[in-house]
Amino acid sequence: MPQKIENKETQTLSPPKVPSNRRRNQRSHQAILKAAAELLQEKGYGALCIEAIAARAGVGKQTIYRWWSSKAAVIMEAYASQAAPNVPTPDTGLVKKDLCQILRQLFTVLTKTTAGAAVTGLIAEAQTDPNIAKAFREQFLESRTEATRTILERGMARGELRPNLNLELVIDAIYGPVWYRLLLKHAPLDDGFAEELVNLVMVGMRA
């Protein structure tokens, strides 16, 4: 029996459109970060809440909680790029000048931008939330401490500083007073303080 052969027309079909939430999610993500930054500037850290961020961004609270665990986590991401973007490492040839310069850079961020309010709130949140503490160290502190470590290592190599310095202790000695003044607000973070602090630390570091 002859086989019946069925001829079918070959059709070229456009690939089916697959719904994707990527673009929408990216827009929502950026809208949330923008809303958080704006509200922080307008209201301050203490008065800021997830509900206000959601309303400003035009999303539901559940959308925010899908990506962030808390208000602090949103603020951390919103201000990480402003507060610690590839901190430049000064290289004047002298440790004292380099340290003064990097401190002045930090003081500008903390006193001339809304990042100062964000940092204060995040340090407070970090006391009870280990995830925020870890993110704060990685996203804000790490780039600055690495730049400072580079300055100190160059000074040791040039013979300006003692070769057996405990670098971690020195870095804590430099930045501890900064966070103290930021949190208690009992004295200014200004050029005069930067110079006095560096002069004091240099006494214990010189060769």
Query: Which range does the strand content fall in?
Result: under 5%
**How many distinct folded domains?**
2
What is the CA-CA span between the terminal residues? 104 Å
CATH superfamily annotation of the largest domain: Tetracycline Repressor, domain 2
The count of strands amounts to 0
* Order of H and E elements: HHHHHHHHH
Q: How confident overall, as mean pLDDT? A: 86
Oligomer class:
single chain
CATH architectural designation of the largest domain: Orthogonal Bundle
Radius of gyration equals: 26 Å
The CATH topology annotation of the largest domain reads as Tetracycline Repressor, domain 2
Please give a structural write-up.
The chain is elongated and about 60 Å long. The N terminus is likely disordered. The protein has 207 residues and is mainly α. Helix 5 packs across helix 6, helix 5 runs antiparallel to helix 9 and helix 6 crosses helix 7. It folds into two domains: 46 residues, Arc Repressor Mutant, subunit A (Orthogonal Bundle), CATH 1.10.10.60; 124 residues, Orthogonal Bundle (Tetracycline Repressor, domain 2). The protein contains nine helices and no strands. 69% of the residues lie in helices and 0% in strands.
